[in-house]
User: What shape does this take?
Amino acid sequence: MTTITEFVLVTGMTGAGRSTAAKALEKLGYYVVDNLPPGMLGELLAQVESAQDINRLAVVVDSRSRTFFAGLTDAIAEIQHSGTAVRTVFLEAADDVLVRRQEAARRPHPLSAEGRLMDGFVKERELLKVLRGRADMVIDTSSLNVNQLSARMRHAFEHPTDEGLNITLVSFGFKYGVPIDANLIADMRFLPNPFWVPELQPQTGLDSDVSAYVLAQSRAAEFLDEYERLIALLTDGFVAEDKLYLTIGIGCTGGKHRSVAMTEALSERLKSKGGNTLVVHRDLGKE
Assistant: This one.
């Protein structure tokens, strides 16, 4: 008999990328089961633990389970009470993105019956709101392609969960909206904007000239110092509460200069001290 060392539950909105997330976990060595009624989670766990070669399990549960879905939180609590930790990943996206994806797939929403697609998404959000609030990790896939979502999953689950806090830094432009999966939002619009410097305007925060311009500001250095201390404080608290995933959104006006440079700088600081950090430049290239 083996002991399940990693149990990941994947759920979220229809069209938000559950299948992609499941495939990424499968490539990491997880045994993946899709669309399982929540009431069968305990039975599945018992069967898997009786096997000799499975210690990482991932289960995809969603609104297709309909009436079975109501018992999901109870099923999770029962498994955790038995001593097996469950990490819940909730996949999210903006309504217009979900509708567009579902229309492109030419599929009806499982909860829309004969109504509009949007009616199904409204019902689904209501059904999932409690689970979203309790999720260990929420990923907004609105601006992610298949490869980027797979990268987020690899970063979160490639290594055992006892290696400390998993931090994702997302640069973004406020003009495109705030990341809906961020635990913290940092606003870089207090820094001088390279956009108004003619030779810097066409460049991005990944270019050395822009990065040097942004980081030369004393306020930039002060921000990095303060946020490094804040993240250290959060890390201690999150790990103590068994919350292992933290997403920080770092924004500027367009997500091209200041937020990109500061995200890269903060990531380098965290990595230099052993931090498990992933950088996502959400809006780079949109301007």
Observations:
- The beta strands are 6-12, 31-34, 56-60, 86-92, 137-140, 166-173, 184-187, 245-252, 276-281.
- The chain has two domains: 6-162, 166-281.
